[in-house]
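Q: Could you fold this chain for me?
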Amino acid sequence: MTEPEEAFIPYKGLLPTHHSGEPSRPVNGSFLEDECWGMHVAILRRLALPQALIEMLDGATRGAAFPYKDLSPFLPSDVNELGVPERRGKWDGAVDGYVLSMPEECLWTTLRDWYGWSIPSLETVEAIRDRMGITDLLEFGQGTGYFASVLDASGVKMTTSECFNMGYDGIGVWRRPDFNDSAEMFAANPEKPVLISWPDPVAENVTLSLLRPGQKIILTGARDRCGLRPSVLQARGFVRDCQAFMRAVVPSMTGGLNDLDVWRAPG
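A: Sure. Below is the predicted structure, expressed as structure tokens.
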């Protein structure tokens, strides 16, 4: 007799610790080796998230609304009342007692692993659901599933897959992917628009090969640092939907706001 599968409960509140132990400090290591070791230890220990941020993000998966400006105190860079970066915040260079040259990266990695690269807010939901009129949406590369969970709670039917089914710790902690095989998801839903947050440049050709003729893609993230840049899409015959473009509606864990950029595949 097999054991019943344990119910899946998303992580909330305190972040779980990594299963593996902390690495030993390199003996006579180089500066780079010491830096990588310190970053690894800090990420394993998990920076404590402020309770207000935990409540705000967890509430979004139950349909609670919050404006993106409420996220600004918790983002890695200083932002104005609209969430737009103005200057880099000061940092003493230490996390958990370890001096790091990239402490903001450590914070960002922690938040990314348990919420996402992009953090949907009230403005994000209004842009996708109300202004774009989307009620049924695919997500390729769902990561933690947080983005999809927020849209689901807001009345947008989500169908998701993960790009590689591997990588950082938090894949699927909020919502398990509906498809383990992304090609199967695209083949079964050729008419539905696809949300892709922070497209991975490494997966660019794979992503383009999965899209069906005429399929719409909705892109967000720092477009100058992501895959599927406008020049690439234009060269492949994609057409930009300028009327559907939404400026500065998706908060990012790197600080500030990202756009929603909409394109249609050729054919």
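A (continued): Residues 56 and 66 are 7 Å apart (CA to CA).
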